[in-house]
TrEMBL record:
<protein>
    <submittedName>
        <fullName>HTH-type transcriptional repressor NsrR</fullName>
    </submittedName>
</protein>
<dbReference type="InterPro" id="IPR036388">
    <property type="entry name" value="WH-like_DNA-bd_sf"/>
</dbReference>
<dbReference type="Pfam" id="PF02082">
    <property type="entry name" value="Rrf2"/>
</dbReference>
<dbReference type="InterPro" id="IPR000944">
    <property type="entry name" value="Tscrpt_reg_Rrf2"/>
</dbReference>
<keyword id="KW-0238">DNA-binding</keyword>
<dbReference type="GO" id="GO:0005829">
    <property type="term" value="C:cytosol"/>
</dbReference>
<dbReference type="InterPro" id="IPR036390">
    <property type="entry name" value="WH_DNA-bd_sf"/>
</dbReference>
<dbReference type="InterPro" id="IPR030489">
    <property type="entry name" value="TR_Rrf2-type_CS"/>
</dbReference>
<dbReference type="GO" id="GO:0003677">
    <property type="term" value="F:DNA binding"/>
</dbReference>
<dbReference type="GO" id="GO:0003700">
    <property type="term" value="F:DNA-binding transcription factor activity"/>
</dbReference>
Length: 144
């Protein structure tokens, strides 16, 4: 499964926020740090805000931060949210797509099962596990 750039940008931004969970970041700051489009990142942050993953603050000194502790946000939850517009294959499209094999296709169920296994594996990791940069409190906990 290949993730979209939209999801990639979202994961990078969230991993960065998890590295300093109490801090406000700006889209300009994150876009510069990772060399990604500020315009596209703004769209991602808007969607993450609407879903309650990040909290945004407008005005001078504004920005965005995680709405919940990074330990409580799974990577699977983020991927499900940001990939929800992306059909795995033509037959998964909301409008039914243009697949000529439907309804006799015997592959769709296997693809759906594989997607669920993929997401279940991502559910095993949280933003805290993938924080960037790695949080020193987590490193000390693992070493100790």
């Amino acid at each position: 499964m290949r993730l979209t750039a939209f999801t990639d940008f979202g994961l990078r931004a969230l991993m960065r926020l998890a590295g300093e969970p109490g801090r406000l970041f700006t889209t300009d700051e994150i876009a510069r740090e990772f060399g990604i489009s500020r315009h596209h990142l703004t769209k991602v942050i808007r969607e993450l805000g609407a879903a309650g993953i990040v909290v945004t603050q407008r005005g001078s000194g504004g920005g965005f931060r995680l709405a919940r502790a990074p330990e409580g946000i799974s990577i699977g939850e983020i991927v499900r949210l940001l990939e929800n517009r992306q059909a795995l294959a033509e037959c998964f499209r909301a409008d039914g797509g243009a697949c000529v094999l439907t309804p006799d296709c015997r592959l769709k169920g296997r693809l759906a099962a594989a997607r669920e296994i993929f997401l279940a594996e991502l559910d095993r990791s949280t933003l805290a596990d993938c924080a960037y940069p790695a949080r020193t409190d987590k490193l000390e906990e693992l070493a100790g």
